[in-house]
Structure formats: structure tokens, C-alpha cells
Amino acid sequence: MPFAVTKPLRQEVERAFPDRPFTIRFWDGTEVPTTNGAGPVFTIRSPRAVAHALRAPGQLGIGRAYVAGEVQVDDIDAAMDLLQQWKPAPVDGRTQARLMLAAARAVGLTRPPRRPAAEIILSGKAHSRERDAEAVRHHYDVSNDFFRLFLGDDMTYSCAIFSRGARTLQEAQETKLDLVASKLGLRAGERLLDVGCGWGSMAIHAAREYGVEVVGITLSPSQAQIARERVAAAGLSDKIDIRLQDYRDLGGEQFDAVSSIGMVEHVGDANLDEYARVLAAALKPGGRLLNHGITRLRHTDPAAGPFSERYVFPDGEPLHLSRNLLALERAGFVTQHVEGFADDYAETLRHWYENLDANLDEATRLAGEERIRVWRLYLRTARNGFRTGFIGIYQVRAQLPGEGVLPGQTPVGADGRKG
Between the CA of residue 386 and those of 118, 221, 372, 376, what are the distances in Å? Predict the structure, then answer.
């Protein structure tokens, strides 16, 4: 780029951050060296990386530069550790101004860079039917084969449970599905509604192992297609109906139980009470609900940042556990059991990103380089969220009035096992 000069930026970075457990290497071969001889190396491949940061200062601009491939890191796990452990001194306003001016000199004369193709900006009212469908398609309709690479053949895209003794990812996912079914007290001949059914794992497990009839709903056409194919391959088409349907369009059908696994995070605070009312209306008196979802933990923490909103989960809105319970109570549910699985989800995510890294060439072919950068970062960031107490995940079992102990089931103790 004409007139692009890195020296002022290097000097300002060194002045602002005298303790640097990392190296920044620029396109002209110069660098800001680490001060402790260790740490990851960030390579700024062109002035466009700095231009992204200037166009959208903060998380979004840096994220755009990373997704576009203008910023590279030699060790992504070391970079994640750095973000977690490094506590730089606060940067005052004057220092920020000098950094911005030096960054502008590093950019030189160039047009503002385009946003990466993997970025999405949703339009319309948040959590409307149309916008929810668009958000779901952005996240899930990447490639079914892409998801299979890191989820495994069972295609279960939610927290697996290792804390019950499972040794492999598949065993841990089977443990989770069976725990959901057990907590719901499913019996042969009953009807189960699986909200946000994904690729059909819960529906297949419930029909095959417990003899129930299942209606599974999703907003993702590619998920619905694969779920139907898996149902047919399992010989369960007479027991499972997979629908491309919004939960608000359920109508007057009645079910004995509802499983909601990894769905509540997509509903949003404004619609959460309606969501709980819809699920209550779909249940018979005494009907049971198992709500399995990610939550925010600290009330002082902000919601998800702009990187997640534009690249990972558009309109994703994990709420606090207390908010979820309040919605259920307002809808008439009685909460019977709450159980957290943050450590299990951290372990699940480790398996997922290791699987993705082991199949990186094929994953890149299927999803493209930008998406792969997003997913490698997202899976690790999510794991850190569970490990540091930013987010948690809970299973909440609740029931409508009309019956006492779940039919056909002895009470479940605090550890989730039958008592």
C-alpha cells in the first residue's frame, strides 16, 4: 500500500504494552518482539488487517481481519491461553489516540476493506419467524458433511455427558440422550415433541429405546433432510415425524413430554415467556419438560459480542438460569430438578475441535477457509467460556400440574440417577 509505514505503530505498541507475552510480525518483515521469549506469534499479513481494525475498532475489526486471513497465528491454543491469562495495564485515552494515529500511518492509502463473505448482518425484527429462520440457516446450513467431521456419525450437536463414566464422545452423547429420556420418564406409546431436533439424534433414541412416537421440529432444511434420512435408515419412519417448522406454529397438538435440547439459547429474552407458554400448551395435564440449554452465569457480564453475532450465532441469546426458570413458572410449570454440566460441555468442545483439526483439509474443502477460521476459534472460545464461569449449561426438568411422581419412574435424585 502506498505510504504504509509500520515503524510508528511498532513503537506505540511497545510503549503501550511493555509486558508482551507474544510477538507481532508485520508484512514488511519487522516485528514487535515478545518480552519473555515465549508466546504465540501473530502475523499481520498486509495493511488491510490494520484497516479492518480501524474501520471497526475492537473485537469486530480484529475478528474480520482474522476471518479474512489477514491476521494469522502460529498456535491458536497458545493464543487462547494468552487471551485468558494476559492482563495488560489499562490504556488511557491519549495512548489510544496515538495507537490509532500510528495504525492509520501503517495502513497508508487504501480503500476500506470489504467485510468477509462469512459475515452476516440480519435484517428485520429480532426473533421474528423470518429472522430466526435466517439465523439458523447461517449457522447450521454450512454442510452436513462438515458437521459430521467433528460431531461424529451420531450428529449430536449439544453437550455430551462424560461425568457418568463415558470414555468416548459417542458414549458420552448416548449417555446424554438416555439421561434426557430417563428424566422425562418416557414410556412406550407416549408422544414426545423434540423442539430444535437437529439431525434427529434424540428423536431416534427415544423412539428406538423407549418406544415413543416423536415429532421433531427444526428451522434448518439441511438438518431436516438428514434427520429424515437417518430416521428411515433406522426403520423408524412410522414412529418419527421430522418437520421444518417454527415452534410458534405447533397448533393444538398434544404431547406427553417435550425435550428442548440446545434450543432455548435461540429464543431470546423477548420471546422466552411465549416459548414457555407454547410448550405448556403442547403438553397434556401432568406433561413433562426437559429443557437443556446454555446460560449466562454472572449478571455483570455482557451478552455475546459482535464477533459471535456476525459470524457464529446470529441473535443467539443465552439467558440466566433464573430467567429460564421464571418463564417456566409463568407458564404454569413446576420445576422439579436442575443439574449443571459445564465441565461436560468443556470436554465435549475439546473433542469437537480436536476432531476438526484432525480433518482440517476436508473441513476446509467443505466449508471454505473463512468458515474454518471462525469454527476453530469459536469452539475454543466456547470451551474457555465454560471453564472460566462465563457461561454454564443446565438441564431443567419441569412438569405441569396434574400428576405427582413421573409415571412409570421412581424419583430422580440430585445426581440424576434413579433413587
Answer: 25, 30, 22, 16
Q: Are 273 and 233 in contact, with CB atoms under 8 Å apart? A: no
Name the amino acid, one letter, at 372. I
CA atoms within 13 A on the CB side of 170: 4
Q: Is the pLDDT of residue 408 over 50?
A: no
The pTM of this model reads 0.90
DSSP state of 313: -
- C-alpha distances out from residue 263 to 113, 158, 235, 378, Å: 35, 10, 26, 18
- Lowest average pLDDT, out of 110-114, 240-244, 360-364, goes to 110-114
Residue 258 is given by DSSP the state: E
User: Do residues 85 and 67 make contact, with C-beta atoms less than 8 angstroms apart?
Assistant: no
**Coil, strand, or helix at residue 292?**
strand
Q: What percent of the chain has pLDDT over 90?
A: 77
User: Contact, 224 vs 288, CB < 8 A?
Assistant: no
pLDDT digits (tens, 9 = 90+) for 294-329: 999 988 887 777 888 899 888 888 999 999 999 999
Cβ(236)–Cβ(201) under 8 Å? no
Distance, in Å, from the CA atom of 41 to the CA atom of 44, rounded to the nearest integer, reads 10
Q: Identity (one letter) of the amino acid at 80?
A: M
Which residue in the block uniquely carries the three cell numbers 469459536?
Answer: 378
Q: What are phi and psi of 10, to 5 degrees?
A: -60, -40
Nearby residues of 46 by Cβ (< 8 Å), 6 or more positions away: 1, 27, 70
Identify the burial level of 214 via C-beta atoms within 10 angstroms of its C-beta, where 0-12 means exposed, 13-18 middle and 19 or more buried: buried
- Residue 197 vs residues 50, 89, 215, 302, 375: alpha-carbon distances, Å: 42, 46, 9, 29, 22
The cell numbers describing 57, all together, are 475498532
What would the grid cell of residue 250 be? Answer: 405447533
Q: At 391, list the grid cell.
A: 457461561
Residue 5 has pLDDT above 70, yes or no: yes
